[in-house]
Amino acid sequence: xxxxxxxxxxxxxxxxxxxxxxxxxxxxxxxxxxxxxxxxxxxxxxxxxxxxxxxxxxxxxxxxxxxxxxxxxxxxxxxxxxxxxxxxxxxxxxxxxxxxxxxxxxxxxxxxxxxxxxxxxxxxxxxxxxxxxxxxxxxxxxxxxxxxxxxxxxxxxxxxxxxxxxxxxxxxxxxxxxxxxxxxxxxxxxxxxxxxxxxxxxxxxxxxxxxxxxxxxxxxxxxxxxxxxxxxxxxxxxxxxxxxxxxxxxxxxxxxxxxxxxxxxxxxxxxxxxxxxxxxxxxxxxxxxxxxxxxxxxxxxxxxxxxxxxxxxxxxxxxxxxxxxxxxxxxxxxxxxxxxxxxxxxxxxxxxxxxxxxxxxxxxxx
Length: 366
What we know:
Strand order of the largest sheet: 5-4-8-7-6
Oligomer: single chain
């Protein structure tokens, strides 16, 4: 049988074979043999000794199997796994029932879950609750048609952190066009999303006071105005200005002035309702939006803010107060005209002694 051997035949396996033959013991092994035309193939075989009545070995019986295709498939599978683990994108493979059969190293890194922790489980284990029933209904409707689904998924990692991924899920089918597996390729965009959220927050909220910025506040005003026109709801706004704020800065310094601004803004935000808005309109001036409030109820909210500000403890500085002008949007009145009226009411409160709210009342034509 050594005529089957060649350059890639394992010397170790052949030596073990010879030893078994000499000892008359069972042999099992695998190596590369060569056909008559010189082509290599991988063989797996066993050899059993045959004995006569006297116990003497008379023959050897060998059963051989060509496993070249199996070895090639295993090498392909190993290469496939190696390639998938080399990519930076996460890869998840499930059967047609959604049971996880494979995840690559990038997926483990993105989610924090190891392969052993997810095998046999369902991808629903990663759901964060941030996406509703309709989102997943649309996904499954697309997949069941044999089409790929692309979307941004908000999942939850093993450490309970939200992870944002652009994901493509593709159904795999057999020759009869039956879905056998689903392959999901996901690209982690969490860092980019968090950075964008941070930037949006910086644009939306004033870094010092936590109130809306002027630009974000103008959008909030426009939204309240549209709601007022569309739903016929009342809308009131107020301008609140800190009294003698320049003296605070001059006497105590700008860092103390900043602390006062932050405290006053926080107290007004805490006093108002969730659907109201506090906007840093100017240096020490705040615009307040009382959505769905007529003048009477808006005045009550404005007074609550004024008293909340007055009751703040600023240490050695003593009480700091605000003067407030308030007005209700009238039919067919422009926002700019309402703001101008409220601004005049604010200065009326200033001139009347400060630490008070003044209402801008529209005179009715005779």
